[in-house]
């Protein structure tokens, strides 16, 4: 029912910045939204979350560098990534949960590559 599409990934040098966007096919006013990432050979990990009230949380290793935000009128969530490190290289995925069904919805991912 809900389709998520990420954009904004790319290749950047260490210390640089990228902004990822995730746009949903329906309204997200009542949804908590998340960004996950998965590096080669690693488990998928939760990077950042934002509640429907705008409360945010972050993976310890990205605190102070990444900022999650939402623009409900555009059904979009963002991840601003600053001071990028090679360790941030991964496929980044947008995620939400169905309000009624509690089903997980995932985007297809966007590649972020940080060179040293």
Question: What are the key terms here?
Answer:
11 strands; globular; 0% helix; four-stranded antiparallel beta sheet; 116 residues; seven-stranded mixed beta sheet; mainly beta
Describe it for me?
- With 116 residues, the protein is an all-beta fold.
- It is 0% helix and 51% strand.
- It has strands at 4-7, 10-13, 18-24, 33-38, 45-50, 56-58, 66-71, 76-81, 90-97, 104-106, 110-115.
- Strands 2, 4, 5, 6, 9, 10 and 11 form a 7-stranded mixed beta sheet that branches. A 4-stranded antiparallel beta sheet has the order 1-3-8-7, with no helix packed on it.
- The radius of gyration is 13 Å and the shape is globular.
- The model has no long low-confidence stretch (mean pLDDT 96).
- How much of the polypeptide forms β-strand, as a percent range? over 45%
What general form does the structure show?
globular
Number of contiguous helices:
0
Classify the oligomer.
single chain
Give helix and strand order, one letter per element, not per position: EEEEEEEEEEE
Radius of gyration: 13 Å
Compute the separation of the termini in Å.
40 Å
Low-confidence stretches: none
Number of strands: 11
**Main beta sheet strand tally, sense and closure:** 7 strands, mixed
Structural class designation:
mainly beta
- The percent range for helix content is under 10%
Q: How would you state the average pLDDT, rounded?
A: 96
């Amino acid at each position: 029912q809900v389709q998520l599409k990420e954009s904004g990934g790319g290749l950047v040098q260490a210390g640089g910045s990228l902004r990822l966007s995730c746009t949903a096919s329906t309204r997200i006013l009542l949804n908590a939204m998340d960004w996950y990432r998965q590096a080669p050979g690693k488990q998928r990990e939760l990077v950042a979350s934002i509640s429907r009230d705008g409360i945010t949380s972050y993976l310890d290793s990205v605190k102070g560098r990444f900022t999650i935000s939402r623009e409900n009128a555009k059904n979009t969530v963002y991840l601003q990534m600053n001071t990028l490190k090679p360790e941030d290289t991964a496929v980044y995925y947008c995620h939400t949960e169905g309000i009624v069904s509690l089903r997980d919805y995932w985007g297809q991912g966007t590649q972020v590559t940080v060179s040293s």
